[in-house]
Design goal:
- There is one protein chain.
- By secondary structure, the protein is mainly alpha-helical.
- It folds into two domains: 65 residues, no CATH class; 35 residues.
- Helix content is 54%, strand content 6%.
- The chain is built from three helices and four strands.
């Protein structure tokens, strides 16, 4: 099964490189494959985590992969702290003013009379997004 998938992916890539298939068409097919794999993996993820936990060994090798159990990250919430909430409001005001300065090229002054520097603007890498037609 994995070999068939790998063969199909290689074939699609070669067809695009050789000009026999539209890159968008190949990408869409690969996207559908990836979505199916992601859905299937999600359906068994909890069971796989439980199985890996029960093994308990430092190393677990399956099909040439070392399967590690990575604990969820530690997260903090500050939303219950009044001082944090106050500073967040001020930070959002500064951010909005800095965005305005960057987008318009005009000098922006906050309600304290301080000049707000323009935000640094950059753009992320373009990417394709696929949504199912209804």
């Amino acid at each position: 099964m994995i070999q068939e998938l790998e063969t199909r992916l290689v074939r699609l890539t070669l067809e695009v490189e050789e000009g026999d298939r539209s890159a968008i068409q190949a990408w869409a097919e690969m996207k559908r494959m990836a979505d199916l794999v992601k859905t299937a993996m999600g359906a068994i993820e909890d069971a796989a985590i439980n199985e890996r936990e029960s093994i308990g060994a430092d190393e677990c090798h399956v099909d040439g992969l070392n399967i590690e159990l990575v604990q969820g990250r530690k997260m903090y919430s500050y939303k219950h702290i009044d001082r944090w909430k106050e500073l967040q409001v001020h930070m959002k005001q500064v951010e909005q003013a800095a965005k305005t300065a960057a987008d318009t090229g005009h000098l922006v002054v906050d309600h304290y009379g301080q000049e707000i520097e323009p935000a640094e603007l950059s753009f992320g890498k373009s990417y394709l997004k696929a949504t199912r037609l209804r």
